[in-house]
User: What shape does this take?
Amino acid sequence: MRRILSVLTSLLLWSTSALSYHPANEILSSSSTSLPIDQIFSVERGFDTTDMIEVAVQGYMPNSCYRLHKGSAYVDRVHKRILINVEGYVTRNEVCLPMITPYLEVIHLGPLEAGQYQIYSVLNPETHAMIQIEKSPNNDQDNYLYAPVDTVELTETPISNILETSETKQTLSLKGTYPHMLTGCMRIVDIKSYRTSNNTNYVK
Assistant: This one.
């Protein structure tokens, strides 16, 4: 009987400890901070005023006490500037391991007015990019349907040659699934791609 009571007590203590944890508690014991941004990926040209604009940013978290929260953007439509900030949390009263963790965050900007926009990181303004938005000839959405893309994979395969140099060939694979209602009614007609000056591959 004493052994049973001991087991029940242990289970009760464990369940109390488990129930006391909640992701919100981690946020409450943390302070908000801006995370460093190493690079801003933007498609410099090809968008107009009817498109929903997105940019991606890449950075890192300095140690294990940092947690990624969300990215945000402020659009200065007068001066054509976009300020990007990636927010994170730093956990207090915790042993922080010196472990750098990279992150990639996609930030939705929505439709933009025509013009050339300069994109800056709030934390480190030396990290910047640009994007050109053209005026659409009409207010309608594009006349084309775009195939949905679920995953993107970049692979490298060695190229065999007489000199036996270590050259490789890069292949970009896009995979997606047609909407159920349009299965059998859609097909790929054309694929356009180019690389921008900030080393971003644009596929349409």
Q: What stands out?
A: Residues 30-134 form one domain.
